[in-house]
Design goal:
This protein has eight helices and twelve strands. It is α/β, with parallel strands linked by helices. Strands 1-2-3-4-5 form a five-stranded parallel β-sheet. Strands 6-7-8-11-12 form a five-stranded antiparallel β-sheet, with helices on one face. A two-stranded antiparallel sheet has the order 9-10. Helix 2 links the parallel strand 1 and strand 2.
Length: 255
Amino acid sequence: DYLISVGKYWVEKYGIDGWRLDVADEVSDVFWRRFRSELKQINPDILLLAENWQDAYPWLRGDEYDGIMNYSITKACLDYLVYDVFDAQAMADRLSHILMRNTDQANNMMLNLLDSHDTERFLTLAKKNGKDERSLLCSLAIMFFLPGMPCIYYGTEIGMEGGYDPDCRRTFDWNRKNWNMRVYATVINLIRLRKCIKGDVTYSAENGILLIGRGDLILAVNNGTEKRRTKILHKEYEIGPFEFIIINIKEGEVL
């Protein structure tokens, strides 16, 4: 009763937009069902976002969480663009599997992320495995094309690095001279483009290139060490190693 009263207090008195529920899978289902029921009676639109590192399907059936911190996407991007576990087809299959195991409503409420206060930073892991910021940029593009909410952990947008906690929680570097401006500019462009990314999502692979479609846009990602070419609607496109392009198929143009 006390914990639920705390949750209700902040919603009723201050109108908070949601709760991020830490280590939520270690709390009973009975509690979360009641927590959700009582808070949704106050504000049906309040967001209940849980920390869960595994397949959270049992909690995402409409009576407990709205969404989770989607570490499945984190792992998929690492396997595809850092650890070389997946080729393009395997990545398309993994993304499709992640999407299909939950409802559309749950997928749209997922917090998609590449790194957090509990993980090594993505760029640090990339460099440890002989990669560079291109792996991060491709992963960011994938994240922005997925259903759900793209989440940028502070500093990722400027290329901050860091190992495990507490190193991943370094003070933000406000000196722009130290920023990776290629990463920063790409993040700004992806945020602008995100407003235009709508419609159902499709995943496929062609000639070693991952293709993610949303409406009139297609994201094409090459995780190979050589240039690759792909044909989309009778037009051929070339993509450099560990690079991505975004194509407007209606206009046939690369954005």
